[in-house]
C-alpha cells in the first residue's frame, strides 16, 4: 500500500497514525553507521583540539573540514555525479545532530554543508557545479553564505549591496558589505546576494580570490567563539557573468528556499547539543553532594532532569518526523524529472512552516536545557572549567540566526493563512466546524485501552482551539491580520506546541510494543511529562490570543471553549516525573 504523503500544515486538520511517522527507531544500518562515524570523528579528532579552536586557531577547522570530506560527511546532500552521496534528509539531520557535540566546529560544518553548499546544488548550472562542487565535498574549499548586511537582517530584501554589469558585459562589479558571515575568514567560495542595477535581487558565486573581495576582522562574540564570523567587503569586486547563480532578479527564491533546509538542519543540530548538555547535567547531579546526599537524589533536581529529558524527546521526535515528511514527498519525484531541482525545492517549500516550527522549538529546548544545566552546576556552572558555561554562551545565537525566532514564529500562521487563501488547505471550513463545537459540549469518555488516550484527547482539543483562534483572527482583522504580530505570535505558539506534543505522543505509541517494561515506563513518563508542560504553554498562548482578538460575550465564549479544549488529566504526573528522572540518573545520559 502506498504511504500517505502529507501536505504542509495538514497535521492541524487531519489525524496522523503512529505508523505514518518516521522516528529514530526507523534508522537503517547505513544511517546508524553515518551517525556513529560522525560521533567518533567528533570524539577522536575535534574534541582534542576544541580549546585551540575556541581561541580561533582556524587552521584546525580547515584541517578538520578536509577530514570531514575524507569521511564522506560533506557529501550527504550532493548529487553522485559531482562526487556526492545524495542521501535522504533523515541521514543529513543525523549527521548534523551528531556533529553538534563539537561545539563551534559544528557551526562551520553546518554553514558549509547547508546554506553554503545547497544554493549551488539546487540552482547552479552544470558548469558551475562541475567547477565548484568537487572542491566543496572534499573540503578543499569551504563555503559561506552572505545575505545579512549592517542595515538589513530580518529584512533581507532590503539589502543595499549592488551589482553593475561592466561595459563589455563580461563581469559584474559588486559593491557593499555583508555582515555576520559564518566561515568568513576561511571560506574560498561565497554565495553573495546583491541587487543588479540597485533593483533586481540576485545571487552570485564569488571566489575569495576575485579582485575587490576582502574580509573584515573577526567579530568578538558572546559564544561560538571558535567559529569564524566576519564582514565580507565588496569594493568593485569583479565577478564573471558566468557566476550569476540562478536567474537575475530571482535571488529571493534562493535565499528563502535554502533557509528552509538551514532552519531544519539547525533544529537537528541544537537537539544534539541539548542531548550533550543534558548528559553533563545528569553526570554532575550524580557526583555533587550537598547535605550528605548527591543532589540528583533531591526532588528539585529530579524535576529539572525529567522536564529536560521529556523536552529533548519531543525535539528529537519532531526533527525526524519532519525528515520523514520531506523524504516521503521527495521520493515521489523521479530523478529524471525535467527541472528536477525546481520541483525538489517546491517539495521542501511545502514544509516551510514545519521547518520554522522545528527551528523555534528545538532552539528553545536547547536554551531551556542549557539554562537548567548551569543551575544544576550552581556556582560551578558560571566558571569556564565546567562545560555548562560554554553551553550557555553558545546556545544563545541559535534563537537569532537562520531567521530570528520572532520572524520564524510569524512565518507559521502567515504561511497557513496564505495557503488557506489559495485553497491549498481547508482552514476556513475546519474553523467553521470548530466554532460549532464551541456551542456543543462534548461528553465523550476516554478509552483507557487506547495508548495515550488522554494525550490524544488533549491534542484534538488543542487543534480545535487553534482553529477557533485562527478563524476569529482572520474574520476580525482580515487582510490586516499580518500587521497584528502579537496575535500571530500567540497563535504560532499554539501551533508549535501542537506539532511537538503530537510528535512525542505518536512516537511514544509507536515505540511501546517493542519495549521492555522499564523502557515502556520511561517512554510513558516522558510523554506525560512533556504533554503536561507543553499543554500548559499552549493553553496560556491560546488565552492570550483570545484576549488580543475578542472582547465581551465573544471573549467569554472563546475562553470557555479554550478551558474545555485544553483540559488534560495528568493524574500521576509527579510519580511519572520521578520515574523518568531516576532512569536518566541511572543511565547518566539522554535516555532515548
UniProtKB/TrEMBL annotation:
InterPro entries: Acyl-CoA-dh-like_C (IPR049426), Acyl-CoA_DH_CS (IPR006089), Acyl-CoA_Oxase/DH_mid-dom (IPR006091), Acyl-CoA_Oxase/DH_mid-dom_sf (IPR046373), AcylCo_DH-like_C (IPR036250), AcylCo_DH/oxidase_C (IPR009075), AcylCoA_DH/ox_N (IPR013786), AcylCoA_DH/ox_N_sf (IPR037069). The keyword Oxidoreductase applies. Residues 249-412 form the Acyl-CoA dehydrogenase/oxidase C-terminal domain. SUPFAM superfamilies: Acyl-CoA dehydrogenase C-terminal domain-like, Acyl-CoA dehydrogenase NM domain-like. Keywords: FAD, Flavoprotein, Oxidoreductase. It comes from the Bacteria. Residues 462-564 form the Acyl-CoA dehydrogenase-like C-terminal domain. The keyword Flavoprotein applies. Gene3D superfamilies: Acyl-CoA dehydrogenase/oxidase, N-terminal domain, Butyryl-CoA Dehydrogenase, subunit A, domain 2, Butyryl-CoA Dehydrogenase, subunit A, domain 3. GO terms for molecular function: acyl-CoA dehydrogenase activity; flavin adenine dinucleotide binding. Residues 28-140 form the Acyl-CoA dehydrogenase/oxidase N-terminal domain. It holds the Pfam family Acyl-CoA_dh_M. It catalyses: a 2,3-saturated acyl-CoA + A = a 2,3-dehydroacyl-CoA + AH2. Residues 144-236 form the Acyl-CoA oxidase/dehydrogenase middle domain. Homotetramer. Belongs to the acyl-CoA dehydrogenase family. This is Very-long-chain acyl-CoA dehydrogenase.
Amino acid at each position: 500500500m502506498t504511504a500517505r504523503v502529507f501536505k504542509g500544515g495538514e497535521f492541524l486538520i487531519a489525524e496522523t497514525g503512529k505508523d505514518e511517522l518516521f522516528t529514530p527507531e526507523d534508522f537503517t544500518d547505513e544511517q546508524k553507521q553515518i551517525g556513529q562515524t560522525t560521533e567518533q570523528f567528533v570524539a577522536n579528532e575535534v574534541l582534542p583540539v576544541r580549546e585551540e579552536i575556541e581561541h580561533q586557531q582556524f587552521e584546525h577547522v580547515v584541517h578538520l573540514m578536509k577530514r570531514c570530506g575524507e569521511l564522506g560527511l560533506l557529501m550527504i546532500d550532493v548529487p553522485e555525479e559531482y562526487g556526492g552521496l545524495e542521501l535522504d534528509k533523515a541521514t543529513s539531520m543525523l549527521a548534523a545532530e551528531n556533529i553538534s557535540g563539537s561545539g563551534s566546529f559544528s557551526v562551520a560544518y553546518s554553514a558549509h554543508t547547508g546554506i553554503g553548499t545547497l544554493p549551488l546544488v539546487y540552482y547552479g548550472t552544470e558548469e558551475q557545479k562541475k567547477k565548484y562542487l568537487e572542491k566543496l565535498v572534499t573540503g578543499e574549499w569551504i563555503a559561506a553564505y552572505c545575505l545579512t548586511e549592517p542595515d538589513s537582517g530580518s529584512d533581507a530584501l532590503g539589502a543595499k549591496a549592488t551589482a553593475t554589469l561592466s561595459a563589455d558585459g563580461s563581469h559584474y562589479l559588486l559593491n557593499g558589505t555583508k555582515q555576520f558571515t559564518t566561515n568568513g575568514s576561511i571560506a574560498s567560495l561565497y554565495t553573495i546576494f546583491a541587487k543588479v542595477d540597485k533593483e533586481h535581487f540576485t545571487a552570485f558565486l564569488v571566489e575569495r580570490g576575485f579582485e575587490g573581495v576582502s574580509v573584515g576582522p573577526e567579530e568578538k562574540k558572546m559564544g561560538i567563539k571558535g567559529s569564524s564570523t566576519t564582514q565580507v567587503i565588496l569594493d568593485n569586486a569583479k565577478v564573471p557573468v558566468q557566476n550569476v547563480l540562478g536567474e537575475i532578479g530571482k535571488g529571493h527564491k534562493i535565499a528563502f528556499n535554502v533557509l528552509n533546509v538551514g532552519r531544519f538542519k539547525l533544529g537537528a543540530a541544537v537537539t544534539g547539543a541539548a542531548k550533550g548538555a543534558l548528559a553533563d547535567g545528569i553526570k554532575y547531579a550524580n557526583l555533587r553532594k550537598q547535605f550528605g546526599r548527591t543532589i540528583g537524589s533531591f526532588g528539585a533536581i529530579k524535576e529539572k532532569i525529567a522536564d529536560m529529558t521529556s523536552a529533548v524527546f519531543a525535539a528529537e521526535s519532531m526533527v525526524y518526523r519532519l525528515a520523514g515528511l520531506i523524504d516521503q514527498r521527495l521520493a515521489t519525484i523521479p530523478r529524471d524529472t525535467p527541472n528536477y531541482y525546481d520541483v525538489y525545492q517546491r517539495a521542501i517549500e511545502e514544509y516551510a512552516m514545519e521547518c520554522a516550527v522545528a527551528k523555534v522549538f528545538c532552539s528553545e529546548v536547547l536554551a531551556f536545557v542549557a539554562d537548567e544545566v548551569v543551575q544544576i552546576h550552581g556556582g560551578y556552572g558560571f566558571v569556564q572549567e565546567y562545560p555548562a558555561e560554554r553551553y550557555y554562551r553558545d546556545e544563545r545565537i541559535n534563537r537569532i540566526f537562520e531567521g530570528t525566532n520572532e520572524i520564524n514564529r510569524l512565518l507559521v500562521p502567515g504561511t497557513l493563512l496564505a495557503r488557506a487563501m489559495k485553497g491549498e488547505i481547508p482552514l476556513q471550513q475546519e474553523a467553521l466546524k470548530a466554532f460549532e463545537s464551541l456551542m456543543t459540549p462534548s461528553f465523550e469518555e476516554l478509552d483507557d485501552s487506547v495508548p495515550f488516550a488522554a494525550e490524544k484527547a488533549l491534542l484534538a482539543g488543542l487543534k480545535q482551539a487553534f482553529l477557533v483562534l485562527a478563524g476569529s483572527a482572520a474574520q476580525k482583522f482580515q487582510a490586516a491580520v499580518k500587521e497584528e504580530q502579537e496575535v500571530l505570535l500567540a497563535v504560532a505558539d499554539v501551533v508549535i506546541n501542537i506539532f511537538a506534543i503530537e510528535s512525542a505522543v505518536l512516537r511514544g505509541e509507536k515505540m511501546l510494543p517493542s519495549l521492555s517494561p522499564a523502557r515502556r515506563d520511561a517512554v510513558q513518563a516522558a510523554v506525560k511529562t512533556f504533554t503536561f508542560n507543553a499543554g500548559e504553554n499552549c493553553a496560556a498562548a491560546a488565552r492570550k490570543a483570545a484576549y488580543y482578538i475578542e472582547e465581551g460575550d465573544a471573549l467569554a465564549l472563546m475562553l470557555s471553549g479554550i478551558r474545555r479544549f485544553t483540559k488534560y488529566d495528568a493524574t500521576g504526573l509527579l510519580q511519572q516525573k520521578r520515574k523518568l528522572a531516576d532512569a536518566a540518573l541511572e543511565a547518566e545520559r539522554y535516555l532515548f
